[in-house]
Amino acid sequence: MSSPAEEIWAILHELAESQKDTDRRAKETEQKIKEVTASIGKLGNRLGDFIEDAVRPAAVRLFRERGIKVHEVQQNVSVQRGDEGLEVDLMIVNDLDLVAVECKSNLKQQDVDEHLARLAKIKRLLPKYANSRVMGAVAAMVIPDNVARYAYSKGLFVIGQSGEHLEIRNDAEFQPAVW
Questions:
Q1: Among 27, 87, 127, 142, which lies 20 to 30 A Cα-Cα from 121?
Q2: Can you name one GO molecular function term for this protein (predicted)?
Q3: Sign (positive/negative) of CA torsion 84, 59, 170, 104?
Q4: Angle at CA 146, nearest 5°, toward 143 and 148?
Q5: What tens-digit pLDDT sequence spans the chain (179 residues)?
Q6: Distance between CA atoms of residues 120 and 59, nearest Å
Q7: Overall pTM surpassing 0.90 (yes/no)
């Protein structure tokens, strides 16, 4: 028969072993969460690429229907000048106009605000467009109504899904902001 002290030590030893097992499981869980988070991030990037690939061919038709001739569609434009840089998902360009399009799977107001800041930098960071009328657009698979209204109120074209096709959701009276 064991003494009370030996029983306490046995319980403490068992508790310590149990704690080690719990710590190991917590580390495994943390690692799995990191892996899932990374996978979700990659999926989000792929959805963004999917949106860009869907919008690019539709953009020619959509902007021509709005009276903006399209000579070029540039994808994933990136520029860095000194400490400042910018990336534009799609640029719809002709001799006078440039429409910078931000593509998202699920558009949020923060995305609109970030795109507005991006639009303000285009002429400075891409001086070959200094004499162009710079306009903006946002495109997404999911566009909450309040975010669509916000983007519209800020002078951006709003491109979204309508059945099997993409459409510019702005009404005929819409006047885009020009930078």
A1: 142
A2: nucleic acid binding
A3: negative
A4: 50
A5: 677 778 888 888 888 888 888 888 888 888 888 877 676 666 655 666 777 888 888 988 999 999 999 999 999 999 999 999 999 999 999 999 999 999 998 999 999 999 999 999 999 999 999 999 999 999 998 999 999 999 999 999 999 988 778 999 999 899 999 99
A6: 22
A7: no
Q: Parallel, antiparallel, or unpaired: how do β-strands 97-106 and 133-142 relate? A: parallel
Helix axes 145-153, 109-125, angle to 10 degrees: 30
Q: In 69-144, which ranges are continuous DSSP H helix?
A: 109-125
Q: How far apart are CA 30 and CA 60, in angstroms?
A: 46
